[in-house]
Amino acid sequence: MHDTAARSLLSNRLNLVESEVRRRSFLQGSAMAAMGFGAQWIRQPREASAAEPSSSGRSVIYIFLSGGLGQHDSFDMKPEAAADIRGEFAPIATATPGIQICEHLPMLAARSQHWSLVRSLTHPYNEHSQGHMVMLSGQSNLPIGFNPGVPKPTDHPSIAAIVGSLIPDKNSLPPTFVLPEKLIHRTGRVIPGQFAGVMGAHRDPYFLAASRYNAQSYGAWPEYGFHHQSGAVEDPSLEFRTPNLSRPDDIAEERFERRLKLLHHMQTARVELSQLEETQSLQRYQERAISLLADPRMKQLFNVTSAPQEEQLRYGRNTFGWSLLLAKRLVQKGVRFVQVNLGNNETWDTHGNAFPHLKDFLLPPFDRSLSALLDDLYETGQLEDTLVVVAGEFGRTPKVFGLPAHYKLPGRDHWGKVQTVLLAGGGIRGGRVVGATDRQGGEPADAPQKPENLAATMYRSLGFSGHTTWRDLSDRPIPIYNGQPISDLT
Q1: Is pLDDT of 463 > 70?
Q2: Cis omega before residue 180 (within 30°)?
Q3: Would you list the domain boundaries of the chain?
Q4: What is 59-242+309-479's CATH topology?
Q5: 222 pLDDT above the threshold of 70
Q6: Spatial strand order in the sheet of 115-121
Q7: Can you give the pTM of this predicted structure?
Q8: Can you tell me the mean pLDDT for 378-398?
C-alpha cells in the first residue's frame, strides 16, 4: 500500500455497509485471511462510557501455569518434612536472606530482589475447570449452572475480558491479549473461565493463536516438548506462528488497494444500523485492520521467532520464551493486560513422573523465560509500570503418591487448598513473603488470600478505582472489586 493511500484511508471514517451479513462476510473473507487473526478480532469490546471510570495505571502480565504447579516443588519447599512430603528437590538460597526456593530455579533465585511470594492463596476446588474458572475470573463462587465440560454464557467473565471492556484501544492494538493459545484439554474440550460469559461473546478477550492445538507434545516445545507418560517428544510439525501482517503474496498491491476502495465504497451506503453496538465494534475493527496493514512496525512487533538470536537465547527458543518475549513487546506498545498461558493441555498437571519432568522439561524453560522478562522490564525502567503475576488453577497435594497403572514414577494430585503466587513489578516490593503454610505445605497457616484478592491486586495496579463497574448483557453495573488488594506487598 502506498503511504499516500494509507494516510488517506486512515483519515477516513469507515462507515456502514448495506447489511451486517455482508459486513461479516467481507471481513472474515478478506481482512482476517490477509492478516492471520482469529475470529476474536472482530469481537470488539465496548469502550468505557463517560459514566464508567477509565484506567490510567500500569500494565499487567498474568502468567498462567495451567495444570497446577506444586508449591513444594517450586516456591514453598518443606525440607524438614518427611520424604513423601518434601519430594525429591532441595532448596537453594535466593539473593534475599531467609527466602529459599527450588534448586531448579537458580536464575529466579538470583533475582529475588524483583519478586515477592504469596504462599497462602486458597480456594475450595480440586477440579481443573473449576480452578480455571475461579483463578481466571477472580471469583471463588462458581457461576450458576456451571459446567466444567463447556464454557457457558452464564459464566463469570475472565479478568482479561473485564479489563478489555473498560480500557480503550491504543496504538491500533486491543487493550488485552491472551496468548499463545486458548486453554484446551487433550480431548479437545475447551476449558471454561477464559471468556466474557455474562458480558456477551462480543467482549471475549483477544486470543492470539500462535500455537495450533496438539494433544501429544506439552510444555515449552520444541526445545522441551514432552508427554506426561512417555517423556521427551519431538514433533517437527509444530510451529509457533504469530499474525502475518503482510499483504498476501498472491494479491498485487494495486489489487489490494482496489479491495480497500471497494470496502470504502460499500460502506458509504448508509443504512439504519448506526446504533448497533456490534456494527460499531466492526467499524473499529476495520480501522484497526487497515492501520495495522499500513504500519510496518506491527509486523516486526509480532514476529518474535525472527528476533535477534541473542534475545531468543535469553528467553529460550521455545513456546515459553517466545510467549513472554511477545508479552514484553505488547506492554511496551501500550497493551494493558496480557495473559500468557504457559503450557497447553494442562502442562503442569504432574500426577506422575513429576520430578524428572519438572527437572528436565518444565522448570528450566520457566526459570529462563521469566528471568529474561524481569531483566528486560527492569533494565528498560518498565518493571515499575508492569505487574507480573504467576499462578495456576491450584497447587498440588502435600503427599507424593503413585499411579503405577499410568506412570512409572510418582507425582502429586490436585490441591485447591493452597498454592504459591509470584508477583513482581507494578509497585510490588521485591524480596518479601506474604502468608505461610503449615508444616506439610497443605493449608494456609497465616494470612490466607482468595482469588478475589489477587484479582483486586491486578485491578488496583491497572488503576481502577473502587467504584469501577463492568456491565453484563442486560447492562447491569457489576462492581469490579470483590476483594481487597493483597497487603504487605507494596
Answers
A1: yes
A2: yes
A3: 1-35+246-302, 59-242+309-479
A4: Alkaline Phosphatase, subunit A (3.40.720)
A5: yes
A6: 176-179, 337-341, 59-65, 386-392, 419-424, 115-121, 433-434
A7: 0.84
A8: 97
